[in-house]
């Protein structure tokens, strides 16, 4: 994959990542997913972004060059994977919300649980991280030239299959239509409005 594809605002890159393949290789083996759902976060301009209040030790990777992996822990439980986009020094990232396992299904199932249905192995951002085996040690990984976690182009996705809607589960700027997903795909997570959702600005 060419870095030029990622060197744009998150909301422009997010739909282009649908169909791309995210791969993680650990001592246990390799798991790959074809991305089916993404969410864009626009850094300091986005109240829902981790970078909204500026650079910190936690979100520093978001301010780096495009093509790196930003990993954070959600609710103290799950590691979530984000593709850094845009321009070096300006925070911007795309959350990988869901994917279809295309390699290493047996390993993904061991990590997620033997009873988990196949479409749910990487459905939801926490499950993406768990299925792939992503942890804090992968934060900052180079997705384009590295070896542990990589991002590559997959089968082209017809534009007619791409849907756009509000982001899932965020309390601020929840009405921003920065979520992109494949219509009718069983791996895509269900929409859920956060119970802490704030009224849209100006309402």
TrEMBL record:
<comment type="similarity">
    <text>Belongs to the DNA glycosylase MPG family.</text>
</comment>
<dbReference type="GO" id="GO:0003905">
    <property type="term" value="F:alkylbase DNA N-glycosylase activity"/>
</dbReference>
<dbReference type="InterPro" id="IPR036995">
    <property type="entry name" value="MPG_sf"/>
</dbReference>
<dbReference type="InterPro" id="IPR003180">
    <property type="entry name" value="MPG"/>
</dbReference>
<keyword id="KW-0234">DNA repair</keyword>
<dbReference type="GO" id="GO:0003677">
    <property type="term" value="F:DNA binding"/>
</dbReference>
<dbReference type="Pfam" id="PF02245">
    <property type="entry name" value="Pur_DNA_glyco"/>
</dbReference>
<keyword id="KW-0378">Hydrolase</keyword>
<dbReference type="GO" id="GO:0006284">
    <property type="term" value="P:base-excision repair"/>
</dbReference>
<keyword id="KW-0227">DNA damage</keyword>
<protein>
    <recommendedName>
        <fullName>Putative 3-methyladenine DNA glycosylase</fullName>
        <ecNumber>3.2.2.-</ecNumber>
    </recommendedName>
</protein>
<dbReference type="InterPro" id="IPR011034">
    <property type="entry name" value="Formyl_transferase-like_C_sf"/>
</dbReference>
